[in-house]
Backbone:
């Protein structure tokens, strides 16, 4: 059995998808998405997407890295095995700085990547939109907007009417396999 | 926000006055050169770039690949000989205990820097032309770091204990010495390699998704062309491989704009993280020298001077790689003369900075009134390694000056040859810095003349093969150009192209 995932409207150009996103947003839908082969400048604003939360992950990663760097040098050189080298102190915040600096960047970078994957719920190797026969073009040269059937305002004829007013190339129903 | 939300108001306000002034001065019409020439559309860009990895393997690729493998075997045998015999097989002897190994290490690390500069610093500076060359340059970074890592790794002598460089508990219960710049280098270079890999991979995800979505189409086309049973079986196997290879690596990317929003933020953040990283890596590498007390090394100018040199050598290498690829794959519309101009100008700027640093070092050596320091520099230019010094000056300071002229930047054979000179010159820079200071230090009784052994030469020669093997594999299997990014800087990607005129 397959059920309706949503309705998709296909567009040929960046300005067209921008206008379409604006209209869908002002029609009040909440569970919808836009698919583009590249990041279209200004589309986040048109869709009303809030500022990304990835920086939070980056910051946590960076903080962990800096703390880790300073802590290992203090633990290893001061606490666990104090060793006099060139009459220098066992610990000082100065000489471990390059180590802490690099670890800050390393863990911040991992935080950023993990943040991007977590917030995007990736990896997700299957998604109903991939059932669309022209899905290949959505990562190539075409643009699409999809309103999901789970949206509270979803009504097939109303969505089709809204889409028809945007003059898309085609309007298609996207189906997904029902879980057994 | 207020600026971008109503630019039309401001424009109208100034319009009358501006028009009156413009009538008087009649400025020349200077249109910006397009990033993608001949108004290519999105589908053309996708086909062009994906086609490189999807078509039949060209014959030159196989020839280059086999040759590169053979060259890489020189490194392999050099290292096997070294490990089985000892570090003495390199030309290291007192007082020159840092020979080609450190020269090659700094050389390769420096080459990597252009990749990060293009992907990170030019991203923060919103230089749109970076999109055509950043992917290949980032790949170059990673492969160059891999080549660089070999040298210090094997220089430690007992390579099976190399893991002691990392703060991992070992049976001696001793930890690394964190006061040493060499230990900082371990962290700097391993972080650099890892973050470059993350950045490169994340940047590739949307392009890998495109290639994943094209696998079936490509299979059908290639299968129809396959004549024999074996060829068909190979196509079926290759199809399965590609489905999994791109499918897994693409992580299920589907081009959702809600994803793009996080992705763009992550990209910006990684660019912001890589910028201080790339500056710190060569700074820490220069600390290996500058923190010592040797005349000619103990200099505060080293960090900026090393970073400028690294960018210079890296752009040299980008030109060396990209000019043949551009011609072989017909990428003239994507890597335009404008891109080459930009790269040449960066070579010119950084090469001149390096030249300024050479001059400043000499001046400070004189002005500092330290006899040993003064000797170190006069000895560099006129001592037993004068030949190396003047090769360095010719290649690094004089050769990029040709890029002042338009002729010098548009004559691509000439640009390519100069880019080779830049690579040679930057290798010699590291040779001059490392060897002259060590060979002639404080006591003349210690002095010696350093020459590499055949093992040194073979091991270094082989790294070019290793680099080429990795780069050729990259060309065949991964998207050579960041085409999603290229699309986003084309004219037709502008969402307001029609909207604003209403």
Residues:
């Amino acid at each position: 059995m397959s059920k309706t995932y949503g309705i998709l409207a296909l567009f040929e150009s960046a300005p067209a998808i921008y206008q379409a996103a604006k209209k869908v947003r002002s029609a009040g839908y909440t569970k919808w998405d836009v698919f583009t082969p590249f990041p279209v400048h200004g589309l986040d604003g048109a869709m009303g997407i809030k500022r990304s939360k990835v920086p939070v992950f980056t910051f946590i990663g960076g903080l962990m890295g800096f703390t880790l760097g300073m802590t290992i040098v203090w633990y290893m050189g001061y606490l666990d095995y104090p060793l006099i080298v060139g009459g220098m102190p066992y610990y000082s915040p100065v000489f471990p700085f390059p180590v802490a600096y690099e670890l800050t960047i390393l863990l911040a970078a991992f935080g950023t990547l993990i943040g991007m994957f977590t917030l995007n719920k990736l990896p997700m190797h299957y998604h109903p939109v991939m059932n669309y026969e022209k899905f290949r073009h959505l990562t190539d040269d075409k643009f699409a907007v999809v309103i999901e059937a789970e949206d509270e305002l979803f009504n097939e004829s109303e969505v089709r009417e809204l889409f028809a007013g945007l003059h898309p190339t085609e309007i298609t129903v996207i189906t997904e396999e029902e879980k057994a | 926000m207020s600026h971008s939300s109503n630019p039309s108001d401001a424009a109208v306000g100034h319009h009358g006055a501006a028009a009156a002034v413009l009538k008087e001065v009649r400025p020349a019409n200077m249109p910006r050169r397009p990033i993608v020439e001949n108004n290519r559309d999105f589908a053309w860009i996708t086909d062009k770039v994906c086609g490189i990895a999807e078509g039949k393997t060209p014959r030159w690729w196989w020839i280059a690949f086999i040759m590169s493998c053979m060259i890489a075997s020189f490194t392999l045998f050099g290292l096997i000989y070294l490990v089985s015999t000892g570090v003495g097989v390199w030309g290291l002897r007192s007082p020159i205990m840092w020979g080609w190994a450190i020269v090659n290490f700094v050389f390769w690390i420096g080459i990597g820097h252009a990749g990060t500069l293009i992907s990170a610093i030019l991203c923060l500076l919103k230089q749109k032309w970076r999109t055509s060359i950043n992917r290949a340059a980032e790949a170059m970074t990673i492969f160059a770091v891999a080549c660089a890592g070999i040298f210090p790794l094997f220089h430690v002598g007992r390579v099976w204990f190399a893991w002691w460089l990392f703060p991992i508990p070992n049976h001696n219960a001793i930890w690394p010495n964190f006061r040493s710049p060499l230990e900082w280098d371990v962290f700097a270079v391993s972080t650099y390699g890892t973050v470059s890999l993350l950045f490169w991979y994340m940047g590739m995800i949307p392009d890998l998704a495109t290639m994943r979505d094209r696998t079936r189409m490509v299979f059908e086309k290639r299968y129809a062309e396959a004549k024999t049973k074996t060829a068909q079986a190979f196509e079926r196997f290759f199809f399965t491989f590609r489905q999994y290879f791109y499918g897994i690596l693409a992580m299920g990317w589907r081009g959702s704009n809600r994803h793009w929003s996080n992705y763009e933020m992550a990209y910006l953040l990684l660019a912001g993280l890589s910028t201080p990283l790339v500056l710190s890596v060569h700074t820490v590498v220069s600390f290996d020298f500058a923190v010592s007390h040797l005349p000619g090394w103990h200099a505060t100018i080293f960090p900026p001077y090393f970073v400028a040199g690294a960018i210079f050598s890296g752009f040299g290498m980008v030109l060396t790689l990209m000019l043949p690829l551009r011609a072989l794959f017909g990428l003239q519309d994507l890597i335009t003369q404008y891109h080459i101009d930009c790269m040449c100008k960066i070579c010119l700027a950084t090469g001149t900075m390096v030249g300024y640093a050479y001059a400043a070092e000499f001046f400070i050596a004189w002005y500092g009134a330290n006899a040993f320091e003064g000797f170190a520099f006069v000895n560099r230019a006129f001592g037993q390694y004068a030949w190396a010094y003047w090769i360095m000056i010719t290649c690094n300071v004089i050769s990029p000056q040709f890029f002042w002229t338009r002729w010098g930047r548009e004559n691509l054979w000439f640009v390519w040859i100069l880019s080779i000179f830049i690579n040679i010159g930057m290798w010699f820079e590291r040779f001059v810095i490392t060897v002259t200071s060590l060979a002639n230090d404080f006591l003349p009784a210690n002095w010696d003349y350093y020459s590499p052994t055949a093992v040194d030469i073979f091991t270094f020669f082989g790294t070019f093969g290793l680099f080429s093997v990795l780069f050729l594999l990259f060309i065949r299997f991964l998207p050579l150009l960041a085409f999603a990014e290229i699309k986003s800087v084309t004219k037709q990607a502008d969402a307001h192209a029609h909207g604003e005129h209403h």
Chain B has one domain: 2-491.
